[in-house]
């Protein structure tokens, strides 16, 4: 999340917090390296030919749900980026808010092209999700030239998948719980940049619902990929 904020917002919410996150990630990597170096060395074996397998039907259904959950979210974001109006807020209003909040030049350039950075990230997330589910996610494709036909290292898709599941799933599930309480009138809904609390709640349901469903689907797909590529 800090990397994404730096990329699109030219800053982070908390400098000390971002430093703590970076140090924690570095410590996890060093700990994993130390654990691996302590394992007994095994005799090198010839690399087996890549074996590709697809996930089960239930995991495919989870991937479909995770992909579909991002459709209304991406449509909402692209509508704003193209100058349209949704939930009482126009594209020009969203652009002004981006400028006011210190959005980066990359973000503003994308908006000028009618694109939205978070919608593009959602597309990458869906690509990752299906790479975990389908056989092509286990072998480098032909367009990678020298790597074509070789087995994809397990950590390459699993690292972003596990990080995404660990952040998006709790955030989305807790957020959906808050949205349900707000819809029932149990908690107050802040208006933010929207003209009414109902508009804020509508956008919250679309965004938080997408994160919740996708985050859970990503966790399911990552577990399936982990088990299918073990050994």
Task: Please render the helix and strand layout as text.
Layout: H1 2-9, H2 15-37, H3 57-81, E1 85-86, E2 89-90, H4 91-100, H5 105-112, H6 117-133, H7 155-183, H8 197-228
Main β-sheet, spatial strand arrangement = 1-2
Helix content: 55-70%
Largest sheet: 2 strands, antiparallel
Radius of gyration: 21 Å
**Number of helical runs?**
8
Shape: globular
The portion of residues forming beta strands comes to: under 5%
Record field, number of beta strands: 2
**Total number of distinct structural domains:** 2
Q: What is the chain-wise order of helices and strands?
A: HHHEEHHHHH
Q: Show unreliable segments.
A: none
Query: N-to-C terminal Cα separation, in Å?
Result: 32 Å
- Category by helix and strand content: mainly alpha
Estimate the mean pLDDT confidence: 86
Describe the structure.
This protein has 231 residues and is mostly helical. The chain has 2 domains: 34 residues; 175 residues, no CATH class. It has 8 helices and 2 strands, in the order H-H-H-E-E-H-H-H-H-H. A two-stranded antiparallel sheet has the order 1-2. Strand 1 and strand 2 form a beta hairpin. Helix 6 packs parallel to helix 8.
């Amino acid at each position: 999340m800090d990397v994404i904020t730096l990329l699109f917002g030219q800053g982070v919410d908390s400098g000390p917090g971002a430093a703590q996150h970076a140090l924690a990630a570095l410590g996890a990597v060093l700990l994993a390296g130390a654990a691996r170096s302590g394992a007994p060395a095994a005799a090198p074996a010839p690399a087996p030919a890549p074996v590709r397998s697809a996930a089960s039907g239930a995991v495919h259904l989870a991937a479909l749900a995770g992909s579909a959950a991002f459709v209304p979210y991406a449509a909402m974001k692209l509508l704003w980026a193209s100058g349209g109006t949704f939930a009482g807020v126009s594209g020009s209003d969203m652009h002004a808010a981006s400028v006011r909040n210190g959005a980066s030049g990359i973000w503003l350039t994308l908006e000028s092209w009618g694109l939205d950075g978070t919608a593009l990230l959602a597309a990458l997330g869906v690509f990752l999700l299906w790479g975990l589910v389908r056989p092509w996610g286990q072998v480098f494709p032909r367009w990678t030239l020298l790597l074509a036909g070789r087995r994809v290292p397990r950590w390459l898709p699993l690292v972003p998948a596990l990080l995404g599941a660990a952040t998006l799933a709790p955030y989305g599930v807790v957020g959906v719980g808050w949205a349900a309480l707000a819809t029932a009138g149990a908690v107050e809904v802040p208006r933010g940049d929207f003209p009414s609390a109902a508009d804020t709640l509508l956008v919250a349901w679309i965004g938080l619902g997408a994160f919740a469903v996708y985050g859970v689907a990503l966790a399911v797909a990552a577990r399936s990929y982990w088990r299918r590529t073990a050994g």
